[in-house]
Write a structure and sequence with these properties.
The structure is a homodimer of 459-residue chains. With 459 residues, chain A is α+β, with helices and mostly antiparallel strands. Helix content of chain A is 23%, strand content 34%. In chain A, helix 6 packs across helix 7. The interface between A and B is large, with 55 and 55 residues.
């Protein structure tokens, strides 16, 4: 079985932990592990390989996180822009053997009962082999109004229904016939493409063109779809495009401890709690505080007499709200966007193909960054017109190019890059290279960069 | 009239804005102005000169803030350790002309009605000239249990009473004869010393010895009391030591819009509020939040559905609590102290005689600081054994000594100080010198410093 992992996400619902350049599946929520990594691990009990569909911007982020968890046989399909799930799955299936069994899974859900889940996967695989389209129906734990429901008749689907109101949801749950639509699916690649050609042929036609035109690298293990081709595929969900119309759908009732972590209140339950019901966080000192979710790891956080509150502390943004108001985080993000803020988009630590950088202070005439370059990687050969840069190596050894000179800069040594001078930072060593960069100039924006050569094809 | 300003304070009640090295009177709470500066300004309508009693550690902080508000004729008495108000006032009065009229005022109170206050001061001055000890009795605005009360009979004091319980406080307020004890006093220096010799002669005797031994500089405008001498003075408040015993006390009823800002809830009222009752703060985005006090200026703060909440955001510590729990901030500070944290003591921006420094990031092998040196000032001639330093000048021009060389470092230039090397940073210019310092070494603690020469006598 091949695990097709969908890595979309706008990064709004868990803001400021998630940002549009750091959707929640990649945020390291649990002891340094991300939901994406957890998904890969959980599914690799059954799936022999991963096929990642993600935004092109998140390719290196996903690749790094996969390497960390030891996932090796991984293929990527990079979308320049998201067009919902049906086009994403179609493009991926076009790159697979028609007989491959595909497990489509979102990358940002939690599944707590691994063994029950494994059993469900086995059942689904059997159905898929027989040419069915399998959807996983989550046994409801309450009358949730935030999910679509599936009405089942045994293993057959009677109908899909939209998000209900509370009264309807209560009836659904009481009936015992209704399940939450989880967004997890299983089928043969050929079955999906056949059904798509029947019920949404326009998507399939456009997807075939896009796939044919896509740039393929690493023996087809990296597929980059063209922007215009992608925009030509009608945007639609797999539910609307196929599942709700197909006669070949089976449902596997799944009591698997599932959550889509759609808001901070559902995240609360994923942590261990102290005797007061607060999530365990060494940086939180609570006096009389209880039942609260306090996220943040750098500064000291002190609270008094909080109950059912949410605090999300990040280096550049702070969120405080009653846990019960978690659903309104989107409003905050919308308002920030309306004000032209970068905070909905850019996380404080920004991933780059070669490593990461974090802005430590940004002021009128200067900016300070901590830069980490992974072993064997190098930044582009570049120059800036409005800023000079001072680099102090903190650990590792830097191979530095300035103009036509190449030299090493060792820990506790520094070098200077005048504005307008071609330069490059490289880590030829075996350990991460950490440098502190002080930029000085009249303008220190990220877009003041002219790339002359780039290993990652950004020039 | 001479304004004797008492600058004690433990920095706990408005933590994390206040710290023990940054008591609340020096924190820039209001558009960059501190309570200390406000006190000086308010009283200088009447008082021709200031006499500051402060902890020796806060001398340069107080001096800077006085210069900012243009206070010129200022004397200082520096205590190595606080022994409560009676010894502080005694030491100050010993340095004054016996006929001087002294207005004793705390440095961290708010007085909103400047004209009513001025009128009260005129009355007090008259009494003081006639040899009375004047206390200002604040017209109570409610049955506060946090203050001592004064029972008056016209202009005479009937008795001082301790903090009452709520029932008693209600009776006091209803009677119309009771006033809050404000800690503001007015008398001739000679009157105070006479009454002290009558009612607490041990304090006066020890204070005389301490004053005689004290180091006097700048034509007695700067008096530094010796630590042992100070410890020999019995610790007591002016209320206990003199006011409650003297037969020469008069009370001036004062309806002057007074607050001691004893906790964040009383600070709430000092700010302008938006239509939702939140203090105006450009860094706060509230969705449905109301009646809340949100303090902080560097990061974006977003809140949802808060009511009557307190958020205090500083670069190294965050406090969140219901405003009604403001009195419990002390518990937070006590717990942090018990855990060995530096946060109750050290503010993120630390004042030094020559300027300020802020730690921007502190990590295992390095520390980054922003350093601001005031025009005409210089750091000590010093060396470090465990760290090297990289200095990048951002604005201003640095005069740098490294070993036996002295040279200029201009904006966008840098220099390097190897560990063990004697060095000095100086600002000979007319504008502030701003540098970014990257320290690299196995240990970057503040105590790794050997001072060879210091303008501020710290070597």
């Amino acid at each position: 079985m091949i695990n097709l992992i969908l890595c979309g996400g706008s990064g709004t619902r868990l803001w400021p932990i998630s940002r549009s350049l750091m959707p929640k599946q990649f945020a390291r929520l649990f002891d340094g592990a991300s939901l994406f990594q957890r998904t890969v691990k959980t599914n690799s009990r059954i799936c022999s390989a991963q096929y990642i569909v993600s935004n092109a911007e998140q390719y290196f982020l996903a690749k790094d996180q996969l390497e960390e968890v030891g996932a090796n046989d991984v293929r990527f399909l990079l979308e320049p822009v998201g067009r919902n799930t049906a086009p994403a799955i179609a493009l991926a299936c076009l790159g697979l053997d028609p007989e491959d069994i595909v497990l489509v899974s979102p990358s940002d859900h939690v599944i707590r009962k691994a063994e029950a889940y494994e059993e469900c996967l086995r059942k689904a695989e059997e159905f898929a082999k027989k040419g069915f389209m399998v959807t996983f129906g989550i046994t409801p734990t309450g009358p949730e109004t935030g999910y679509g429901y599936i009405e089942a008749n045994g293993e057959d689907v009677k109908r899909f229904v939209e998000k209900p109101d509370l009264e309807t949801a209560k009836k659904y749950v009481a009936s015992g016939r209704f399940f939450w639509n989880s967004g997890i699916f299983c089928f043969k690649a050929a079955t999906f493409l056949d059904e798509l050609s029947t019920y949404s042929p326009d998507i399939l036609t456009a997807a075939k063109i896009a796939f044919a035109n896509a740039k393929k690298e690493n023996k087809d293990a990296l597929v980059r779809v063209d922007h215009e081709d992608m925009m030509n595929i009608p945007s639609n969900s797999i539910d609307y495009a196929v599942m709700e119309k197909s006669a070949k759908v089976k449902v596997v009732p799944s009591d698997i401890g599932w959550s889509d972590l759609g808001a901070f209140d559902s995240l609360y339950g994923e942590f261990d709690h102290d005797e007061n019901g607060n999530n365990i966080n060494a940086k939180h000192l609570g006096i009389g505080s209880k039942n609260s979710l306090v996220l943040g790891g750098q500064r000291q956080i002190c609270t008094i007499d909080l109950d059912n509150m949410l605090i999300v502390d990040t280096p550049d943004a702070l969120l405080v709200a009653p846990l019960a108001s978690s659903q309104k985080v989107k409003k905050v993000v919308d308002e920030l966007k309306a004000r032209g803020s970068d905070l909905p988009k850019v996380p404080q630590t920004v991933n780059r193909p070669w490593g990461t950088y974090s802005v430590l202070e940004s002021s009128d005439r200067y900016k300070m960054k901590r830069i980490v370059v992974r072993p064997g990687e190098r930044l582009s050969l570049q120059k800036h017109l409005h800023r000079s840069e001072h680099w102090v190596v903190v650990s590792g050894t830097a191979t530095v190019t300035v103009g036509d000179k190449v030299f090493y800069v060792r820990p506790n040594e520094s070098t200077y890059i005048p504005s307008g001078t071609i330069h490059r930072l490289q880590n030829e060593g075996k350990l991460p290279l950490v440098i502190v960069e002080v930029q000085v100039g009249e303008y220190t924006g990220e877009d003041d960069i002219i790339r002359v050569q780039d290993d990652y094809k950004r020039s």
